[in-house]
Design a protein that fits this description.
Elements lengths: L3 H17 L4 H4 L2 H11 L4 H20 L5 H60 L18 H16 L8
Helix pairs in contact: 1-5, 1-6, 3-4, 3-5, 4-5, 5-6
């Protein structure tokens, strides 16, 4: 029951990212002070949330700079970390990455099909052979923008559930 605000955040963020390919600030930003306030009043204290916030920012911001994650994904990770702390955030991020690869492939397959996969593979072989970069085509898998918020949300939900019921944990 104590993770109900986090669950609401995860559901809203995943739904918005799937629908619009954006996670708006009005969804993620209010949950950052809410997580800090929640842990200050009922949980492990403000340091727990603030350390999660700082750690998630330091870990995810370089991925934003490299354009691996979008800004909404970084803010979602920061909001998740204020509720879970830095240790459980690492676990949720690992689960999110494991869930994300098949999810991204499925979403890409739905958009471009087998031909888009073959086109990307052929382009990569040409890049490898010629050692020159070639921009992806529009109907190619590599040229797609696929939402990653649902994978981060599922990873966080899985980490929280496994940790809460002490089924399995990667970090102690």
């Amino acid at each position: 029951m104590e993770q109900l605000p986090l669950l609401a955040l995860l559901v809203c963020a995943a739904w918005m990212d799937l629908r619009t390919h954006k996670i708006p600030n009005f969804i993620t930003l209010p949950f950052i002070p809410l997580g800090i306030l929640f842990h200050t009043m009922f949980g492990e204290g403000a340091i727990y949330s603030l350390s999660g916030l700082a750690f998630s920012f330091l870990l995810l911001f370089p991925f934003f700079i490299l354009r691996v994650f979008a800004g909404g994904d970084v803010k979602l990770g920061m909001a998740i970390a204020t509720f879970t702390g830095w240790q459980l955030f690492i676990e949720s991020l690992l689960y999110g990455l494991m869930i994300g690869l098949p999810l991204v492939l499925i979403l890409a397959w739905r958009r471009v099909g087998w031909q888009g996969f073959k086109t990307s593979f052929s382009r990569y072989m040409l890049i490898f052979g010629t050692r020159r970069y070639m921009t992806p085509a529009e109907n190619e898998m590599a040229g797609l923008k696929v939402p990653y918020g649902p994978a981060l949300a599922l990873g966080a939900a899985l980490a929280v559930m496994l940790n809460k019921y002490q089924i399995f944990t990667l970090v102690s």
